[in-house]
Write a structure and sequence with these properties.
Layout (H helix, E strand, L loop, with lengths): L7 H12 L6 E7 L2 E8 L16 E2 L4 H14 L9 H4 L8 E6 L2 E5 L7 H5 L12 H10 L29 H13 L3 H10 L13 H5 L5 E3 L5 E3 L18 E2 L1 H12 L3 E2 L2 E2 L3 H7 L12 E2 L10 E2 L4 E3 L4 E3 L12 E5 L3 E6 L4 E6 L8 H18 L1
Antiparallel strand pairs: 1-2, 1-17, 3-8, 4-5, 6-7, 9-10, 11-12, 13-14, 14-15, 15-16, 16-17
Helix pairs in contact: 1-11, 2-6, 2-7
Length: about 400
């Protein structure tokens, strides 16, 4: 069992972040292969509430859903029901209707056929050409021109969004995993919520990871917070659609930090947890292996919608595996090279460092994503954790 020399510095990072107004609240956890090694929290469940935030609070984990759906897809590959090199349109014929957005003539979008057919593998690796409006100016402009809803609406109309690049030509973070969730449904022959519950969440004991919260879970959930005109955090009513027309493999889950730590430990342990094998070790190795070849994860992804996200500064030497952002360089005093990580839009973050034998996560519920003051808390927590491990 890994032992932390002293957690005081980690606790201080969390409390000081709340006291300074960097975040309204924060929960952080870490574990090794045997179980949790750190759990801490600071601040209220909601600003103005007397209820403290905790590792049992329900959070909107947004794009941390992606790795859960990716695991579902990899299970279907292992079971012989899915080939990653199958063109998406063979499984979902409506995908063939998508064209590439190639600029505008006045306000009218210019669309053309893609140069190749996107595959399931390209959905998993975000190389299919699909994007997100908050990171892509052209997609945002297309939405404004057409009035078409985006994926946060829960409407099937969201799947009409065009490609923004030819498949295989660049890494473009986008709604790929929402399409992948529908691929899993076709391969498995059942709805995504039921499939993930029975094959991923329930076997890992993740009883508080759901697409729709019940009343008890909602009572201990935390709202999304934004800054008011005075820079103070205030709670909002921002939420997913509660009557979605499809289950969002790209963003739709609510979870407690304790629940998701079980999922992280499964990845740390090469696909198994407490005797339950979810994935083969080979599939987990593939998830932690560069799957985009000579393409790169951009060092910086500029924002197209500042109220939703700041620019994402990932830095150099980043690749993408199956559902995980991979750092190819050792971060001094932090995670080892080859670690896998990802995050959620409302500033939830996790990483899995197999080389060091540790996994960590940090949670708050704020917009915009990766606001520098908020993102710095994540960095400070990671540095404090590894310092306590050394």
């Amino acid at each position: 069992m890994t032992s932390l020399h002293d957690t005081t510095a980690i606790d201080r990072v969390l409390q000081q972040a709340v006291d300074a107004g960097d975040v309204p609240h924060v929960v952080a956890l870490a574990a090794d292969e045997n179980g949790p090694i750190y759990e801490g929290a600071a601040g209220p469940q909601a600003v103005g509430s007397n209820e403290p935030i905790s590792a049992d609070t329900m959070f909107r984990i947004a794009s941390m859903t992606k790795m859960v759906a990716t695991v579902g897809a990899l299970q279907q590959v292992e079971r012989g029901n899915l080939d990653l090199d199958t063109p998406v349109e063979e499984l979902l014929p409506e995908f063939a209707d998508l064209q590439v957005l190639d600029g505008f003539e006045g306000k009218a979008p210019i669309l053309r056929p893609p140069a190749s057919k996107a595959t399931v593998r390209q959905l998993i690796t975000h190389t299919a050409g699909l994007g997100y409006w908050f990171f892509n100016e052209d997609l945002k402009r297309w939405e404004e021109a057409t009035g078409n809803p985006n994926v946060l609406s829960g409407s099937n109309e969201a799947f009409k969004a065009p490609l923004v690049a030819d498949p295989g030509t660049r890494f473009e973070y986008g709604i790929n995993t929402d399409w992948l969730g529908r691929v899993v449904e076709v391969a498995a022959g059942e709805s995504l919520d039921r499939y993930l519950h029975d094959n991923v969440l329930q076997p890992l004991g993740m009883d508080n990871t759901v697409f729709l919260m019940d009343d008890a879970q909602r009572a201990r959930s935390t709202p999304i917070h934004v800054r008011d005109d005075d820079g103070q955090w205030v709670p909002t009513e921002v939420d997913w659609s509660q009557q979605p027309e499809w289950w969002a493999g790209g963003h739709g889950l609510y979870a407690t930090p304790r629940d998701y730590l079980a999922f992280q430990r499964m990845l740390l342990n090469n696909g198994q947890l407490d005797g339950e094998r979810i994935l083969s070790a080979e599939s987990v190795r593939a998830a932690f292996t560069n799957q985009i070849g000579d393409l790169d994860f951009p060092e910086t992804i500029p924002t197209a919608e500042p109220q939703t996200t700041a620019a994402f500064h990932g830095g150099p030497g980043l690749k993408w595996g199956f559902g995980l952002l991979l750092n190819t360089r050792q971060a001094p005093g932090m995670r080892a090279a080859g670690s896998g990580a990802w995050a959620g839009l409302f500033n939830t973050h996790f990483w899995v460092d197999q080389a060091s034998g540790v996994t960590g996560a940090i949670y708050t519920q704020t917009l915009p994503f990766v606001e520098p003051r908020v993102f710095a808390v994540y960095t400070d927590f990671e540095e404090a954790l590894y310092s306590a491990l050394s």
